[in-house]
Amino acid sequence: MTETSSLTQAAIAEFESEFADHLALAADSQDLLFRAARTANTFSAEPVSDDQIRAIYDLVKYAPTAANSQPLRIAFVRSPEAKERLLPLMSDGNRAKTGTAPVTAILAADTDFHEELPKVFPHAGAAFRDSLAQSDDARVAMARLSAGLQIGYFIVGVRAAGLAAGPMTGFDAAAVSKEFFPDGKHEALVIVNIGKPGENPWYDRNPRLDFDEVATIL
Predict the structure, then answer these.
(1) pLDDT tens digits, residue range 22-64?
(2) Are 165 and 40 in contact (CB under 8 A)?
(3) Which of 2, 60, 119, 202 lies at a 20 to 30 A Cα distance from 9?
(4) Which residues contact 40 (CB under 8 A, 6 or more apart)?
(5) What is the DSSP letter of 152?
(6) For residue range 87-97, what is the model confidence (pLDDT) as tens digits?
(7) How many angstroms separate the CA atoms of 25 and 22, rounded?
(8) What is the dihedral of CA 22, 6, 47, 192, to 10 degrees?
(9) What's the fold here for domain 40-200?
(10) What is the spatial distance between Cα 106 and Cα 71, in angstroms, rounded to a whole number?
């Protein structure tokens, strides 16, 4: 057992002893989704199936979004041809691991999400759609924020499938958006490598801020 994994296990044990009675989720599920989950930097050759991808989205679709807008759009990059289009647009430090990941998800915000509002927000969607159509700035800001909420759920969804997620923002976002969403209505926000961890997949875990450093109870 490495020093890092020892520290992780110690942190898990400390948390479970202090907070176990306050959470409804089973301890092993807490570990899978949060405490023992890590950002993977290498991946094995084990494939990720279409069924796994669909199962992940079946969880992610329940993320909360403003007016149930659901602006997240996803391009799953798996074929060698698609990877060849993506890799030159990644930053140097992210290119190799993206090349070896079984699947890479490009997570983008649909800035014309408002067109779907009559479907997903039926009691007031048409009026809200018409209002947002008049304000590009408000619509884009809403798309980015709600897609960001969905991206957080996406990472947890990948972990729930027993897979490792490697989220990255080191890429040419404008070029990725143009290459994979050529309609000009989507903004690539985050790219996530997905798969089973490979050899030496983790860096040492960096410190997390404690509750009292970030929160106030009023």
Answers:
(1) 999 998 999 999 999 999 999 999 999 999 999 999 999 999 9
(2) yes
(3) 60
(4) 97, 164, 165, 166, 193, 195, 197, 198, 201, 202
(5) H
(6) 999 999 999 99
(7) 9
(8) 70
(9) NADH Oxidase (3.40.109)
(10) 13
Each domain of the chain, given as residue ranges in start order, spans: 1-36, 40-200
CA atoms within 13 Å, Cβ hemisphere of 73 = 17
At residue 16 the predicted structure's pLDDT band, cuts being 50, 70 and 90, is: low
Whether 196 and 44 have beta carbons less than 8 Å apart is answered as yes
Work out the widest C-alpha separation in the chain, in whole angstroms.
58
Scan for tokens 């450093």, then name that residue: 213
Q: Residue 39 gets which letter from DSSP?
A: B
Residue with tokens 């969804």: 157
The two structure tokens encoding residue 29: 């599920």
Residues 187, 113: Cα–Cα separation, whole Å: 12
Tokens of 128: 């809200």
Write out the two tokens for 48: 């990720």
Closest CA to 155 of 45, 49, 72, 46: 72
User: How far apart, in whole angstroms, are the C-alpha atoms of residue 64 and residue 149?
Assistant: 7
Q: Which of 70-84, 120-134, 152-166 has the lowest mean pLDDT?
A: 120-134
Nearest to 132 by CA among 147, 148, 111, 146: 111
Find where tokens 């799953």 sit.
76
